[in-house]
Amino acid sequence: MGEIFKPGANLQKGEHARLSSLIGAISLADQVKTTLGPRGRDKILQSTGRDLSVNVTNDGATILKNMVVSNPAAKLLVDVSKTQDAEVGDGTTSVCVLTGELLRAAEELLTSGIHPQTINAGWRLAHGVAQKALLDSSSDHGSDAAQFKEDLLNIARTTLSSKILNVDIEKFAQLAVDSVLRLKGSTNLESIHVLKKLGGSLSDSYLEEGFLLDKKIGIGQPKRIEKAKILVANTAMDTDKIKIYGARVRVNSIAKLAELEAVEKDKMKKKCQKIIDHGINCFINRQLIYNFPEEIFAQAKVMAIEHADFDGIERLALALGAEVTSTFDNPEVVKFGECDVIEEVMIGEDTLIRFGGCKAGEACTVVLRGSSQHLLDEAERSLHDALCVLSQTVKETKTVWGAGCSEMLMARAIEDEANKTPGKKANAMRAFAKALRAIPAIIADNAGLDSADLVSQLDAEISSGSKTSGIDVITGTVGDMTDLKITESYKVKSSMINYAAEAAEMLLRVDSIITCAPRERKNPHGRRGM
Fold first, then answer.
1. What contacts 442, CB < 8 A, 6 or more positions away?
2. Residues 497-507: pLDDT tens digits?
């Protein structure tokens, strides 16, 4: 190895490399699998930074994103979880756990002498059978508006059942569905603004039609405007004060300084007049608005809102149908925002600005209340997952049954196909089915139930022809999903199977792990150091 690689490089080959990658991925999956299901537990994530900040969450993507892992296979699982989160918004824990269970099953096959490529070939066959069984078990009510809305509510309840928002699951499920249906088929969640306000309890959260901006209206300006014509800008409104970085102005007398200030004020006055001449009655700026321009706007009866943060102003421009502008010489090319009313509203002890009847009718604000910032952050993550899943379901309207029903149906279909498949590929297909059966077993274990007994009962129900049986963690029995209304998005489940199968197959093909030598750095005295 020393003849090929630089000193300090490391090479793991063969069985040792494969074992290292498998164990790393399985260990990471075991860390997050206790968060799976409606009775999953939370994790405390503590930062090692100066502030030692703390997160309390059971969101798989958040946990994996904040974990510092050194094992290369574990890093791959983190990337797969991020992809699942970006693609569909939920199922991040499931995809990680399923990948770990596939690799655990593969480890047994490798020990028995089956070649990795043979396992992969069997897995590809099993993956195709699983996707077909999932599609066959799905239902589509996209053409029936009332039934589809009921499906969306059921999906929202299922998604939120394992989150902190299950304290008032009916309210938050309705809130999430109403927010997504306002998007009219779009998957762009920018129009849904989530505002977190300390105080009250989670049950005090509500959906506000329109846009809420956590800013103040200028002094002496109108506090309420109807039929608003709005200019959204990103421009400096503080040049009445001389502020040129890296330069100095020398004057011979105080009078000369007063002349300079007068010129600056005159420039600002002309700029404000240009803005007012656009015929607007509301001006929103991303940057600060100093006292002098604020006074000019107040005299012209124009509402001025300053220091709207960049994310806020981009989302606000989208909701109002405006474009952010920086120059004011050509009013004819400026795209103004419109809304029915702008007014101040009180939330708790804070005053906010409400934009009602926005031009983009899908705009709305979800106001989350809670007793602590950690609670609000976790509530926002939970709601975001539900909103992502629902927006994807509106686009891909198929749904499947949850609570382990879909996994058991896929496992049964794979085993039936494995019985018809000759050779060692059949063993790999059965291993794939075993990994799928582990999902309902983990859900039962996390609820403190007898997983072996429940999974065997569920398997018997599925084998006898039932297509809707799943685990009821409340009663600890096998229940009918049509009665329990435990529904999941087809796209979430399909993506989970795809990503887990691809990640497991990639890791199984590994036969070497090469760690590069650290880069040499020169120290201040000219000697080389590591």
1. 33, 36, 37, 97, 451
2. 888 888 888 88
CA 191, distance to chain mean position in Å, is 15
Going through 159-204 in order, the beta strands assigned E by DSSP cover 192-198
In the predicted model, what is the mean pLDDT of the chain? 79
Q: Find residue 43's DSSP bridge partners.
A: 57
Least confident of 354-358, 406-410, 524-528: 524-528
DSSP bridge pairs for 354: 212, 343
For residue 224, the model assigns a pLDDT of 84
Q: Write the CA distances from 64 to 149, 250, 356, 375, integer angstroms.
A: 33, 58, 39, 19
Q: Which residue type is seen at 387?
A: L
pLDDT value, residue 522: 62
Q: Over 379-397, what HEC string results?
A: HHHHHHHHHHHHHHHHHCC
**pLDDT computed for residue 370 by the predictor:** 82
Whole-angstrom CA distances from 21 to 100, 215, 337, 504 are: 11, 51, 54, 10
Token pair of 333 as six digits: 């090319």
DSSP 481-527: HHHHT-EEEHHHHHHHHHHHHHHHHHHHT--EEEEPPPPPEE-TTS-
Type of residue found at 242: I
Mean pLDDT of 193-202: 81
Question: 137 is written with which tokens?
Answer: 């078990």
Residue 345, H or E segment: strand 337-347
The pLDDT of 6-18, averaged and rounded, is 61
Name 72's Cβ contacts closer than 8 Å, sequence gap at least 6.
Answer: 21, 24, 513
Q: What is the pLDDT of residues 327-374, one digit of tens each?
A: 787 778 888 888 888 888 887 777 888 887 776 666 778 888 888 887
- The stretches of 396-424 forming alpha helices (DSSP H) are 405-418
At residue 86, the pLDDT reads: 79
Rounded to 5 degrees, what are φ and ψ at 524?
A: -60, -20
277 SS3 class: coil
pLDDT value at 451 more than 60: yes
Q: Distance between alpha carbon 512 and the CA centroid of its chain, in Å?
A: 34
Half-sphere exposure of 236 (CA within 13 A, CB side): 10
From the list 84, 71, 88, 78, the residue with the least C-alpha distance to 32 is: 78
Question: Closest by alpha carbon to 361, among 146, 177, 211, 187?
Answer: 211
Positive or negative CA dihedral for 185, 93, 496, 153? negative
